[in-house]
Automatic annotation (TrEMBL):
This is Transcriptional regulator. It comes from Bacillus salipaludis. Signal peptide: none annotated. It comes from the Bacteria. Residues 8-120 form the YheO-like domain. Residues 150-209 form the Transcriptional regulator DauR-like HTH domain.
Length: 221
C-alpha cells in the first residue's frame, strides 16, 4: 500500500501543471483504486465537476472500461453532462504499480460549455461535414485487460469492506455500490462477487432485484 501511495503521489505535480496550463476550466482528479469506495485522493480546479476528496469514481467502468475506444490503458475525449447541464470533455488514464496492477486513475475534465456556445455561433456562418467512423472491435487481449481491471476493482472493494460478522444489509449496501459503479455490466462479475462474498449468484441477483425495487419505490414517492 505504501508503494501505491508513493506512485500515486508522484502524479500530483503532473496534475497541477496540467490544470495550470489549461486554466480554471480544466479539472484534474487522481483516484486511488486500492480504495474504490473513497477513491478521490487529489483534485485541482474541482469546481468544474464538484469532485471532492473521499468521493468515489463515477465513469470508470460504465464509460471508460466498456468503451470500444479504451485501449492501452486510456480513453480520451469522452463526454458527460453535469447536473446543471454543462458538457464536460474528459480523458482517463490508468496508473499501474511495478507489478502492473491497476492502482489508480488520472482524469482530466474540461468544461467545454463556452466552446460549445462558440461552435454554435460559428455554425451559422460555416458549414461543416462530420465523418462518422466505425469503431474497431476490441481484441481478445483488450477484453482480457478490461476484465482483469474490473476483477481487481471487485477484489479491492470487497477486501476493504468484508468482515467476519458481515450482516445482510451490509452486503446489500456493498452490492448497491458496485451496481451504481457499473461493475455488474461486465460478464461474469456476478459470479465473482458471489464467490468473494461467500454467497450464491442467485442471492446476488435477489439483492439486485431488491435494490432495484427500492429505487423504483423511491422514484414513485
Amino acid at each position: 500500500m505504501e508503494e501505491s501511495k508513493k506512485v500515486l503521489e508522484s502524479f500530483i505535480p503532473v496534475a497541477k501543471s496540467t490544470a495550470k496550463m489549461f486554466g480554471p476550466n480544466c479539472e484534474v482528479v487522481i483516484h486511488d483504486l486500492t480504495n474504490p469506495r473513497c477513491s478521490v485522493m487529489f483534485t485541482v480546479n474541482n469546481h468544474v465537476t464538484g469532485r471532492e476528496i473521499g468521493q468515489s469514481f463515477d465513469h470508470l467502468v460504465k464509460t471508460v472500461l466498456r468503451s470500444e475506444d479504451f485501449k492501452d490503458d486510456y480513453l480520451a475525449g469522452y463526454t458527460f453532462v453535469t447536473e446543471d447541464k454543462r458538457t464536460i470533455r474528459s480523458s482517463t488514464s490508468l496508473i499501474r504499480d511495478s507489478k502492473q496492477n491497476v492502482i489508480g486513475a488520472f482524469c482530466i475534465n474540461f468544461d467545454v460549455e463556452a466552446l460549445n456556445q462558440m461552435q454554435q455561433f460559428m455554425s451559422t456562418f460555416l458549414s461543416t461535414q462530420v465523418e462518422v467512423q466505425k469503431n474497431e472491435t476490441k481484441s481478445d487481449d483488450e477484453i482480457e485487460n478490461v476484465e482483469g481491471i474490473v476483477d481487481q476493482l471487485i477484489q479491492q472493494i470487497i477486501q476493504n469492506s468484508v468482515h467476519p460478522v458481515m450482516k445482510r444489509h451490509e452486503k446489500i449496501e456493498l452490492i448497491r455500490f458496485m451496481d451504481e459503479k457499473g461493475i455488474f455490466l461486465l460478464k461474469g462479475s456476478v459470479e465473482k462477487v458471489a464467490s468473494l462474498l461467500g454467497i450464491s449468484k442467485v442471492t446476488v441477483y435477489s439483492y439486485l432485484d431488491e435494490i432495484k425495487n427500492k429505487s423504483s419505490e423511491g422514484r414513485i414517492k
